[in-house]
Amino acid sequence: MIEPIGNQYVVARPVYSANNLSISEHSEMRAEESSQLKCCKSQANCSTQKAKKIALSLFPIASWLPTYQIKEWLLSDIVSGISTGLVAVLQGLAFALLVTVPPSYGLYAAFFPVLVYFFLGTSKHISVGPFPVLSMMVGAVVVKLTPSESTAALEISNSSMSNDSSTDEYKVMVAATVTVLSGIIQLLMGVLRVGFLVIYLSESLISGFTTAAAVHVLVSQLKFMLQLTVPAHTDPFSIFKVLNSVFTQIEKTNIADLVTSLIILVIVFVVKEINQRYKAKLPVPIPIELIMTVIATGVSYGFDFENRFKVAVVGEMKRGFQPPIAPDTQIFQETIGDSFGIAIVGFVVAFSVASVYSLKYDYPIDGNQELIALGLSNIFSGSFQGFAGSTALSRSGVQESTGGKTQIAGILSAIIVLIVILALGFLLEPLQKSVLAALALGNLKGMLMQFTEIRRLWRKDKYDCLIWIMTFIFAIVLGLGLGLAASVAFQLLTIVFRTQFPKCSTLANVGRSNIYKNKKDYSDMYEPEGVKIFRCPAPIYFANIHFFKQKLIDAVGFNPLRILRKRNKALKKIRKLQKKGLLQVTPKGFICTNDGFKDSDDELDNNEIEELDQPIHTSDLPFQIDWNADLPLNMVVPQISLHSLILDFSAVSFLDISSMRGLKTILQEFIRINVDVYIVGSDDDFIEKLVQCEFFDDEVKDSIFFLTIHDAVLHIWMTKDYNASKFNASQEKEMKFDFTINTNGGLRNRECQVPVETKF
After folding, report:
1. Containing H/E element for 590?
2. Which residue, among 466, 535, 460, 455, has the nearest Cα to 497 in the 3D structure?
3. Which among 121, 297, 446, 737 has most CB atoms closer than 10 A?
4. Residue 404: which residues within 8 A CB-CB, separation 6 or more?
């Protein structure tokens, strides 16, 4: 019964243990479970509606295209598609440098994924295509598998092909094969419905990893900005080797490329900052990449930079598409680990961006369907000599901010890329590679600004801050592939560390109410005499059961096993005295008639030590032993005032077999020294698992479970003789009344008729 009184309430109900709930409530719950089972079975049956639902889930275009609002959306999608397409062309060319393939192949990576995602994707706003981090990861694999210059020259010496063209073809083959393999991995993950695995990549890990990847991109583009010949490195510490190569050749810098790239970089950064700051006032973001590309191409062509200043340019742009190629199975075997990392990172980035827009515009996205769409996009792109893609944050931002409503904008952006591939590609041949490198770096501003996350994370959560820092260090030192694996392992290790060393606490009553909080947090606390309430805020398993036991011992102030052994030792001595007739029992205690009796402690310690851990049996004695009184012959047994121990397991979600044995041992040790143990807040599944594992016996019974701490405390008060306890007069008076709990933390006494179970 709940009785509201203004801003107060009075609850009158029986004291509930886990076992004494009514049979009717239990049967209703079981009936509900059986009905749910029938519902699951009915859902497993095949039907026309279910087949239609599956078809719509596999082809999301069938659900939104018939409802497309042409008058309201088409113009916005056209503007967005043209703007996004122009950005996609430039980013495709720029990110191809990260893959170390000719720039024209970046256009294929910007075109084919969009076609597949148009039919299979669930997000309406992301722009699928090259992403700098993925391009960097693919480029690392390409560099690792590409033969060195001397080896390539030796292999080509007997052929008619040039060294450069052969090397480029092999690089394209490696990039395409890795892309196909990563797409297969994503497709299998989507079919097997394991998209939930990305939850193991936290926001802190992703932020630290993408920041480290941005630093890798920055270092890799220095050779294009300075036009230096830098040998490829893919092993750990490769970033430092590249920097060493750059600085040792710094005197060979091409000044024209350096000046051009710096000018482009400064202008791009400034205009992007203007776009960000005044995005609410600008109808569309200023297409600074397009403007600078047109200007840089015209200047390079007009002043003949290639011949006058010996700058590196894009060069020949092949018109049309290359024929599809079959992936190299030998490369599959060598790149399975790298491809898995590429597949995971690509999906995580795309799904994260898609989730932002789905929340903003209130439409659902399906993680498993996104895996299928991205997987087929990469397979299709790799087959036509493209490289792995996901979504670039800046490109998706352009598509959304320019008014894109659906993936119609995406397909229109692909048409712009198609026009460049088929007809306008030759216009970009005079463009300097240093300009593309500057444009690639200009898109990293947001990632590089993530360094500010360190201060925010340090204030909010030290563990998340540590994950960010260690992920950044691992990715910088070990490379992106090994760095990602090490970062995930470290993140999981922090979870283990947090649960292995939980912040256990001792609880007490706040304001004589039914609220129990940490004793250290409040001043006005009441702890019932002889009762200790201990809370564990984490799962208990093999790694922390010993920590849990030690914290519990620290909380109660004694080791129950030591008390048990001391009592059994004393009991053996008392039995010997009693058998020899040397012990008399009086109302005032024990009297030993022979002070010269001696016994060896060593004999007790070394002779059948297991007996000391057994329960204390005094039924054969003609008297009862008060272990808190003086014993004969000055036997020293630690005295304890604790008679009840309450374990708050409301935050303990599971136990494993190892910890279950340890927990049972702990409970037995307390029970054997006459300390009653109660467990509160446990879930029904938790108790059922204990039953299945045969946890309970004659000592540890299932009646120790109570619904709340207050239920257990009231039960203790009812079972123990608290009239003889050391309460002062005011406390005894309060005991005659029930508690009314005020919302302001106060208490007032109120006489009311309540069930007898709650009176004490």
Report:
1. strand 589-592
2. 466
3. 121
4. 76, 77, 80, 81, 84, 124, 125, 410
d(CA 569, CA 563): 10
| Helical axes 132-145 vs 70-99, angle rounded to 10° | 30
Distance CA 387, CA 7 (A): 65
Q: How far is CA 286 from the centre of its chain?
A: 37
Q: Phi-psi bin for 385: left (phi > 0), alpha (psi -120 to 50), beta?
A: left
Query: How far apart are the C-alpha atoms of 95 and 598, rounded to whole Å?
Result: 89
Residue 608: how many other CB atoms lie within 10 Å: 8
Q: Which CATH superfamily is domain 505-558+640-722 in?
A: STAS domain (3.30.750.24)
CB 288 within 8 A of CB 276: no
Question: Checking DSSP bridges between strand 531-535 and strand 644-648, what pairing results, if any?
Answer: parallel
What is the C-alpha to C-alpha distance for residues 413 and 460, in angstroms, rounded to an integer? Answer: 41
β-pair partners for 742: 8
Write the pLDDT tens digit of every residue in 608-659: 667 777 888 877 777 778 888 877 777 788 889 999 999 999 999 888 998 9
Residue 540 · residue 652 · CB < 8 Å: yes
Nearest to 430 by CA among 98, 88, 91, 103: 103
Alpha-carbon gap, residue 626 to 637, rounded angstroms: 11
One-letter amino acid at 510 equals: V
Q: Which amino acid is at 534?
A: F
The residue among 185 and 17 whose pLDDT is bigger is: 185
- How far is Cα 600 from Cα 469, in angstroms, rounded to an integer? 60
Query: For residue 201, which of 343, 344, 340 has the smallest C-alpha distance?
Result: 344
> What is the three-class DSSP state of 586?
strand
pTM reported for the whole predicted model: 0.73
pLDDT at residue 587, as a whole number: 64
Q: Which two tokens mark 526?
A: 């009441």
pLDDT class of 2 with cuts at 50, 70, 90: low
**Which of 577, 558, 436, 351 is CA-nearest to residue 91?**
436
H helices of 192-323, in order, are 203-226, 238-248, 255-277, 288-302, 305-308
SS (HEC) of 655-718: ECHHHHHHHHHHHHHHHCCCCEEEEECCCHHHHHHHHHCCCCCCCCCHHHEECCHHHHHHHHHH
**How many helices (H) does the chain have, and how many strands (E)?**
29, 15
Q: Give 536's Cβ-side CA count (13 Å radius).
A: 28
187 in Cβ contact with 371 (< 8 Å): yes
β-pair partners for 615: none
- Which residue's entry shows tokens 């290790």? 493
